Each structure stands twice: as structure tokens, then as C-alpha cells.
Amino acid sequence: MNEADAVEKKQPFRDVKTYVVRASRMTSAQKRNYAELSPLWCVPYRESLIDYASLFGNDNPVTIEIGFGMGSATAEIASNNPDKNYIGIEVHRPGIGKLLGEIRSRNLENLRIIEGDASAVLSNMIADASVSAFHVFFPDPWPKKRHHKRRLVQRSRTDLFASKLEEGGYFYMVTDWSEYADFALSELAATEGFVNAYEGFAEKKAWRPETKFEVRGIRAAREIRELYFIRSN
């Protein structure tokens, strides 16, 4: 066991991050977008609840996407659904810069970004029973067993997701890592308030755009698995 793993092992579950901020170079366009547009469409992290009506100027339902990557699918979904509001949570700054450019070029008034830890954002900024949907598309599978505790979709984080969803809201996850899919299916099924909308894995929703991670998975002959759970009292 190396020193980093030893330190990680001592940390309590609540302090374990589900992500690593990787050093990635931003293009000049991404840097410019971030500098110019983040004050307009990024919501600073704070320990107080978001007022959706003030943020978006309407009372439309809110979908939260966790880990949107470069944001192409996020922008397309938001563009195709102007009657819904979207909040994307991400720590990868090049992706934030890219999506900010998409918000401007597509004139997406229904999309905002929060840069930060999803668990902290949901715990401190999102009111209970206030979210209509969660999208988690191709999260980091953390394949090594010693890193499984870093996986986003597991108890007790699934309890947190369930607490934030309104009745009838859905949690939609897609992964190309079969072992993670089996694990997540079990964890979601064991979460109070969640009901699987299917007998097992879900069918692909026609409105979900293909992502670059999906393309990579298909090229690597990995099966794409989808999970779709409904919030029920």
C-alpha cells in the first residue's frame, strides 16, 4: 500500500471524494469563456439553498446533472427542452469552459453550472423534494476494489439523491462498466423511496444524446447499461 492509499484508508466515508481534479490544459477559448461567462451562468458554491425561481426567472421543473464532462449532451438536452431548467455540477474546469460557450452560442436561458463537489452541493444548496430528475451519465467507475468507496452511485449517497427528488421524479444513470452497473443497480434497489421503473436495466431513452464516453465504450466492445429509478413515497 502506498502512502496515498494509506491516508485514504484512514478517512471516514463522508470525506471520500467521488472525483479527482485532473490537471487538464484549457484551450484559449475555454479560458476566455470561463473568465467572461462564469459570472453570468455559474452559481458560486455556498451553504444556503438555491431559489430556483430567482435563478431561472420561472417555476419550471429542475433537472440536475452530475459530472457533465465537456457538456455536449447537457447542452443538447437543455436546448431541446426549453420548458425545463437544468443545473450541471462539475469540477473539470475545461468542461465548464466548454459548456459556458455552448450556453452562449445556443442562448440557453434554462441552464446553469455549479463548480464543486456534488455531495456538498446537494447537501447544502438543494432543498429536499425539489428536483424533478437526476442525470448521471458515465460516471467514473473507479474499477479498483480499494477505490469502490469513491463511486458516486452507492449508499448512502443514493439516500441523498432520493431525499432531493420530488415524488415521481427520476434518477437516470448510464455506464459502460458492467460491474459498476450491477453494483449501482443493487445500491439503488436498496434505497428507501426508489422504485425501479424496469425489471432490471432500463431501455435507452430516445432523448438522451450519445456522449463521447459512450462512443469510447462501444468501440471497446463494452456494453452500455442504463438504470432508471422513480422516487416514490
What does this structure look like?
By secondary structure, this protein is α/β, with parallel strands linked by helices. Helix content is 37%, strand content 19%. It has nine helices and seven strands; from the N terminus they run αααβαβαβαβαβαβαβ. It has helices at residues 3-10, 28-41, 52-56, 72-80, 93-106, 118-125, 157-164, 178-189, 212-219; strands spanning 62-66, 85-90, 111-115, 131-137, 165-175, 194-196, 225-231. Strands 3-2-1-4-5-7-6 form a seven-stranded mixed β-sheet, with helices on both faces. The protein starts with a helix and ends with a strand. Mean pLDDT is 90; it is low at 1-13.
Mean pLDDT: 90
Segments where pLDDT lies below 50 for 5+ residues?
1-13
Helix content percent band: 25-40%
Q: Number of helical runs? A: 9
Give the structural class. alpha/beta
SSE topology string: HHHEHEHEHEHEHEHE
Q: Short summary of the structure?
A:
With 233 residues, the chain is of the alpha/beta class. It has helices spanning 3-10, 28-41, 52-56, 72-80, 93-106, 118-125, 157-164, 178-189, 212-219, and strands at residues 62-66, 85-90, 111-115, 131-137, 165-175, 194-196, 225-231. The longest helix is centred in the N-terminal third of the chain and has 14 residues, at 28-41.
